[in-house]
User: Fold this.
Amino acid sequence: MAAFNTAITDNPHDAEVRLADFGLTPMQILTIRDSARAAADDASPLMPLNAPGTLAYIRGVEALRAQLLDGEWVIDRTLGVEAVINRELGIRIGYQNVDKACDLVFKPIPRSVKGPASEKMCSFPLFDYYGMTLETDHDRVPRDDVKDPHGDQVTTYFVMVGEDGSVELSSPIIANRRYSDFRERIFVDRLDEDWEDRIEPDSEPLDDFDVPVSIKDKT
Assistant:
């Protein structure tokens, strides 16, 4: 298989901008992550061994649809894969449990092998096969004339939720029932020092905030 460059968005600001191209916000992706992880944590030791992953998948798909369905995003079950699709953008989004997300070195590994339906949706892209690298966000957004949700022009992404709570929205290339590579990876949240220290003026305390102090008058 020919090698190609994966477009990676790995900081919160750029991720927010890129998600806006899809009409999405980071908070929607985080809500999907939180619902899935909460469901996994609810699994009882008396349940089957695969209960955490199964519950996370069910609640993840439910949250995905609850967050995105708005008239432009609609339920999609092409080839039996539970997802949502935006026919105007030509974007399909599913849910996937992975070992870990948002790692530049180690790519996400799905917790279950991918079936032939997913592989058909995420086959190796034609232009990349011929060595063409898409350089800009504009180039990666499907053309305006894309209308057929079941055609080859629809790009499939997955909300990938790691066992540690990391989450990314990424478009994989699936071959031999595995992620062989990625067209694009958008890191939404990860549990490391850099992301914990990110500045969010609207919600985070200010480091240089001075509390005014005055001496109480005892007279």
About this structure: The beta strands are 7-9, 73-76, 83-86, 91-97, 155-161, 167-175, 178-189. Residues 32 and 66 are 9 Å apart (CA to CA). DSSP finds seven helices and seven strands in the chain. The first strand starts at residue 7 and ends at 9.
